[in-house]
Design goal:
81 residues, mainly alpha, 3 helices, elongated
């Protein structure tokens, strides 16, 4: 049966992608919290300033890239894609 759409009618792919994104973002935020907890206030302020401008964009790109890659791999294993 030929598919006219990229994704099947059910929303399983949305749940897989959302779960991958959630766990990757959770791992990243826990790591940042542990790192900042070991710094003094002035250094932490400078570090937070740099994080708030540049790093989230870069990290978000890689988080989404890995999540989409894992979701596609999982969907291929389930023979949905």
């Amino acid at each position: 049966m030929a598919r006219n759409h990229i994704f099947p009618a059910n929303n399983r792919h949305v749940h897989i992608l959302a779960n991958e994104l959630f766990f990757l973002i959770k791992k990243f935020t826990i790591g940042v919290e542990l790192f900042l907890g070991s710094m003094n206030c002035s250094c932490a302020g400078f570090f937070l300033l740099s994080i708030s401008m540049v790093i989230p964009v870069i990290v978000l790109y890689y988080v989404i890239k890995v999540a989409v890659k894992n979701a596609i791999k999982e969907l291929k294993n389930e023979r949905i894609l």
